[in-house]
């Protein structure tokens, strides 16, 4: 694991977000009864390791066309007009984020303010993507970001940006033209994935004549990702299939692969069996290569995502299988809204969770309640890591700001209730901010 010098960040101490005490049925944290300056100062000054991001570096002009028209968050936009009728943490904090990053002076963001913000953005990025993105991380209080991409981001600083390689295409060696009863969007995913496999197989000089040769290709791809600096691999398949990866007999999988080669693999249920077998082979090889597996769970940026498919409890299919004891799985996005159901999974030695995207979708009070609930469970403080799921600068800043406030609220409540002293709260804060991420990766 590459190590970078710890960066020293000095931040203005923000006032703790206040909230009223809540019932046990609500994921809302109570306000701390007394301030804990040592804990607050440590949380403010310690830089995050961000295990989940999608960096967008360089100036981007505002586009009024919404890249995610079926969803509420403006996650694909570098800045956006605040909608006065909407209650959303990303709207509430956008002006602060733009002030912190670009020096914006406004108290809100209206459509008529966008040209001035675009000018500030151009000036900010004039130094180039590498220096500009390092500044975004510094301003947000993030030491390193793990970028989810198809290939390493060579134009960013490798000391600050690590690569997490997408591997979903490996699960889908055959296109969707012959598969019956699938949606057009799933068919498009299968076609794109199979084309990616075809291109990659030519690159490595491999022809598939059976399942064994395909699995050899899988091992070569993962080894090449590792060689090129991948620090983990990313599975986003919850967007188009269930996260339950069944244990399929190898002979059956081999026969299904042969049908795929012959063009006679037509039933979706049969293709899922083949996907399950290949996915489990990927997970086993990732464990052998010491590559943690980051898995999208819970809500997501596509209206077609089904919460039953993305439920983190589906990962029991591999987390409860002793064959995967050497493969570390990180459940992204807290499995939200099923965050309260995954605590038993954290008993598994190879299971971890981040709260990326939750930290710009809910206010600090609700995130604090989630963290408090997890931290009250035995051993969970060793299992929780920070992620932002951010792309544009504003979301890096918002994710970090909300996370610091929520972590302070959660740990303060544990102190107030006499569960832990302040010194132990500081130790736990270090684990969630950076220590767990560095240990897992």
Question: Can you walk me through this structure?
Answer:
The chain is α/β, with parallel strands linked by helices. The chain has a single domain (37-58, 128-440), classed as Metal-dependent hydrolases (TIM Barrel, Alpha-Beta Barrel), CATH 3.20.20.140. The chain has 14 helices and eight strands. It has helices at residues 37-45, 89-102, 114-124, 129-140, 184-203, 211-227, 250-262, 268-288, 307-310, 316-319, 358-361, 364-375, 393-416, 422-440; strands at residues 48-53, 142-149, 161-166, 230-235, 293-296, 329-332, 351-354, 384-385. The protein has an eight-stranded parallel sheet with strand order 1-2-3-4-5-6-7-8. The model is unreliable at 1-28 (pLDDT under 50).
Question: Key features?
Answer:
441 residues; 14 helices; globular; TIM Barrel; alpha/beta; disordered N terminus
Strand content: 5-15%
Lateral strand order in the biggest sheet: 1-2-3-4-5-6-7-8
**In the residues, how many domains can be counted?**
1
Which term fits the overall shape? globular
Short structural description:
The chain is of the alpha/beta class. Helix content is 42%, strand content 9%.
Give me the secondary-structure topology:
Blueprint: H1 37-45, E1 48-53, H2 89-102, H3 114-124, H4 129-140, E2 142-149, E3 161-166, H5 184-203, H6 211-227, E4 230-235, H7 250-262, H8 268-288, E5 293-296, H9 307-310, H10 316-319, E6 329-332, E7 351-354, H11 358-361, H12 364-375, E8 384-385, H13 393-416, H14 422-440
Parallel strand pairs: 1-2, 2-3, 3-4, 4-5, 5-6, 6-7, 7-8
């Amino acid at each position: 694991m590459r190590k970078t010098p710890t960066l020293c960040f000095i931040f203005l101490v923000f006032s703790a977000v206040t909230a009223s005490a809540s019932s046990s049925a609500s994921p809302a944290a109570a306000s701390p009864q007394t301030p804990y300056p040592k804990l607050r100062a440590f949380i403010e000054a310690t830089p995050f390791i961000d295990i989940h991001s999608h960096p967008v570096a360089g100036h981007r002009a505002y586009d009024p066309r919404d890249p995610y028209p079926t969803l509420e968050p403006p996650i694909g936009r570098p800045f956006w007009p605040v909608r006065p009728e909407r209650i959303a943490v990303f709207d509430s904090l956008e002006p602060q984020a733009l002030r912190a990053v670009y020096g914006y002076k406004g108290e809100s963001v209206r459509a008529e303010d966008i040209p001035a913000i675009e000018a500030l953005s151009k000036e900010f990025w004039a130094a180039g993507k590498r220096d500009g993105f390092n500044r975004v991380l510094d301003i947000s209080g993030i030491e390193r970001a793990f970028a989810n991409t198809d290939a390493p981001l060579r134009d960013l600083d490798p000391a600050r940006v690590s690569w997490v390689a997408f591997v979903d295409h490996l699960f889908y060696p055959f296109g969707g033209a012959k598969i019956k009863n699938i949606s057009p969007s799933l068919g498009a995913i299968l076609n794109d994935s199979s084309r990616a496999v075809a291109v990659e197989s030519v690159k490595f000089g491999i022809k598939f004549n059976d399942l064994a040769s395909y699995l050899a290709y899988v091992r070569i791809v993962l080894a090449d990702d590792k060689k090129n600096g991948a620090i983990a691999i990313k599975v986003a398949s919850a967007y188009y299939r269930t996260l339950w990866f069944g244990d399929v007999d190898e002979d059956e999988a081999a026969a299904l692969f042969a049908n795929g080669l012959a063009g006679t693999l037509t039933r979706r249920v049969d293709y899922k069996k083949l996907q399950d077998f290949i996915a489990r082979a990927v997970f086993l090889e990732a464990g052998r290569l010491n590559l943690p597996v980051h898995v999208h769970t819970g809500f997501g940026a596509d209206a077609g995502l089904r919460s039953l498919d993305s439920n983190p409890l589906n990962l029991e299919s591999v987390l409860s299988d002793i064959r995967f004891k050497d493969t570390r799985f990180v459940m992204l996005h807290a499995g939200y809204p099923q965050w309260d159901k995954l605590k038993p999974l954290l008993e598994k030695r190879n299971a971890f969770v981040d709260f990326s995207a939750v930290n710009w979708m809910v206010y600090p009070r609700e995130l604090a309640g989630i963290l408090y609930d997890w931290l009250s469970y035995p051993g969970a403080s060793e299992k929780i890591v920070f992620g932002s799921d951010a792309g544009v600068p504003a979301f890096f800043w918002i994710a970090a700001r909300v996370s610091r406030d929520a972590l302070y609220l959660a740990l303060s409540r544990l102190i107030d209730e006499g569960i832990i002293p302040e010194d132990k709260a500081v130790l736990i804060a270090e684990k969630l901010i950076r220590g767990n991420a560095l240990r897992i990766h």
